[in-house]
UniProtKB/TrEMBL annotation:
Protein name in the entry: Peptidase inhibitor family I36
Signal peptide: 1-47
Keywords for this protein: Signal
Entry superkingdom: Bacteria
Species the sequence originates in: Cellulomonas oligotrophica
Amino acid sequence: MTLEMTGKTMSFPASHTGRTLRRTLASGMTAAILVLGTTGLATPASAATADCPSGYSCFWGDTGYRTDSVENRLVRFYQCYRDLETATWSGTSSAANDRASSVSNKGQHDPAYYYVDARYRGLFFPLPYGSGDGNLGDSSGNAPASFNDKISSARFASFDTDCE
């Protein structure tokens, strides 16, 4: 059997044809998946975002999906949050506007958009469904670092900018 890859030809003995070759390739693919699965692809820490219910997008005032070192102090929205000027972290009277440092999208199978201005205006970034960013202050996650402590409104992509 002959296999051509990027201009190079490789020959295999007859014993590597058919089922044996498929088994060898399957083993290699399994190993690659296991390596990728353990190398830190950008996904939210599921335990840390447990307080963000399915169907919602949430944000917290500190990195690591916390506010004042408490995981369940968050702001969440189901469709949109037009103006965070009136928002407070759950269980507190502390203002949440322009104070988000971590975000998670457990929403409705579409991206969540986070804006620097109220009423879905100004710069924004999309956060894909099923993802999060535990530190908006750096650029290693799913959002640009320039959004730390600047979010003033948010909505899911399936809701227009007239969402109340």
